[in-house]
Design brief:
One of its GO terms (biological process) is positive regulation of nitric oxide biosynthetic process. Belongs to the DDAH family. It comes from Rhodothermus marinus (strain ATCC 43812 / DSM 4252 / R-10). The protein is of the alpha/beta class. It has one domain: L-arginine/glycine Amidinotransferase, Chain A. Helix content is about 25%, strand content about 20%. The protein contains 7 helices and 15 strands. It has helices at about 50-70, 120-125, 170-180, 215-225, 235-240, 260-270, 280, and strands at about 1-5, 25-30, 70-75, 90-95, 100-105, 130-135, 150, 155-160, 180-185, 200-205, 205-210, 230, 250-255, 270-275, 295. The strands form 5 sheets. A 4-stranded mixed β-sheet has the order 1-9-8-7, with helices on both faces. Helix 3 (about 170-180) links the parallel strand 8 (about 155-160) and strand 9. It starts with a strand and ends with a strand. Bound molecules: arginine. Arginine binds near residues 40, 90, 196 and 284.
């Protein structure tokens, strides 16, 4: 079932089935990363402005941070002509069924410039023995994987953002196909075009969020289901994509450097922020969360 209003909620997080946290990280090397077109407001004015050598160092520092934290990092080569493929949160949604079956839903990218990225990720997951699931033709609209569809930490519950890159129709199909509840959140501000730019689920009861990115119904759903909602200052969210942070283990939070207030709030809530510079990738509208994909 897809939940769109707080008054529809007939469950709590504790009553949703458990699901382990994914332990493997996929990254796509940034050899061909660049800003070559504008498909989100963050990219404006940055075409041709990427420092490739610096981008590579920033990407390597992120990869090494996951390794230091004990995660296995798989690296796929980038592909010429696909400058956004480095944002590998977007081309698929990995899932783990209750019976242990692993698969990925293949995205239907909104921007034509990004459509050819999907088969490269599909091939990787096929080699890993994952079932590949395509959105059926009769389901209309686009879907951008873990840019918009986020697993609730430790639970088989999906948060689904829609409005810019993903169509809400996809969530009714996904809920049925995966047999999970989906909480659908309408995104209303183009600076926050993916759910992972305005909501960061840290652990089962805590999340960072930007209130202005959602409508009234969305804010009510978030408040009802997440006891510790940490508000991110709008400047840090818009300019530094503070909500594109990633907490892989319920404790460490990898986040763009300079999000001073967000970092203070994270520490106060008992988390350990790790500040990284993803400045070259911010020029494309992405940071930590979208530069990797967690899989099971
Ligand atoms: N330039 C990319 C795009 O606009 C950035 C994607 C960032 N990914 C994310 N999950 N927020 O598609």
């Amino acid at each position: 079932m897809v939940y769109r209003q707080a008054d529809q909620l007939d469950f709590t997080i504790e009553t949703t089935p458990p699901m382990p946290l994914p332990r493997r990280v996929l990254m796509v090397s940034p050899d061909h990363f660049d800003v070559e077109y504008v498909i989100n407001p963050h990219m404006e004015g940055h075409v041709g402005q990427v420092d490739r050598a610096l981008a590579r160092r920033q990407w390597e520092a992120l990869r090494d941070t996951y390794r230091t934290l004990g995660f296995e990092v798989h690296v796929l080569d980038g592909v010429p002509g696909l400058p956004d493929m480095v944002f590998c949160a977007n081309q698929t949604l990995p899932f783990l069924r209750g019976d242990g079956g692993r698969g990925v839903v293949l995205s239907r990218m909104h921007a034509p410039q990004r459509r050819d990225e999907v088969p490269h990720l599909a091939r990787f997951f096929e080699q890993q023995g994952y079932a590949l699931v395509s959105i059926p033709d009769e389901v209309p609209g686009s879907f951008e994987g873990m840019g918009d569809a986020l697993w609730h930490p430790g639970h088989a519950l999906l948060w689904g953002g829609y409005g810019f890159r993903t169509d809400q129709a996809v969530y009714a199909w996904l809920a049925r196909e995966l047999g999970v509840r989906v909480v659908a959140l309408h995104l209303t501000d183009p600076d926050f075009y993916h759910l992972d730019t305005c909501l960061s689920l840290l652990d089962a009861g805590t999340a960072l969020y930007v209130p202005a990115a959602f409508d009234e119904a969305g804010r009510a759903l978030l408040h009802r289901l997440i006891p510790n909602l940490i508000e991110v200052p709008e400047r840090e969210a818009r300019e530094l994509l503070a909500c594109n942070a990633h907490c892989p283990d319920g404790r460490h939070v990898l986040i763009q450097r300079g999000c001073t207030e967000t970092v203070a709030r994270l520490r106060a809530a008992g988390f350990e922020p790790i500040e990284l510079d993803t400045g070259e990738f911010l020029k494309s509208g992405g940071s930590v969360f979208c530069m990797k994909l967690m899989f099971f």
